[in-house]
Amino acid sequence: MNRPTATPPTALRRPAANLPRSMPKMKSHSGAKKRFKQTGRGKIRGRHAFTSHNLQTKRPKRKRRLGRSLEVEGSDAQRVKRLIGK
Hints:
This protein is mostly helical. It has 4 helices and 3 strands. Strands 1-2-3 form a 3-stranded antiparallel β-sheet. It is rod-shaped, with a radius of gyration of 25 Å.
């Protein structure tokens, strides 16, 4: 005996009415926005670690060097770009 074929579940769905395909929008990470900036050439700049306490044990030259921003490297830069929405 022939059984009726079942309707696939995708055929039961209604098409979305004029909705863009890129929904929902991604939100940028508010913590990453405050800590990283993107340069004009697309590189990510961030701050050095070890600059918040126990500064009396660090030499002045090291503190000056740690005060400057640095370029985030490699896979970390890709992760940060995704967090800040670039």
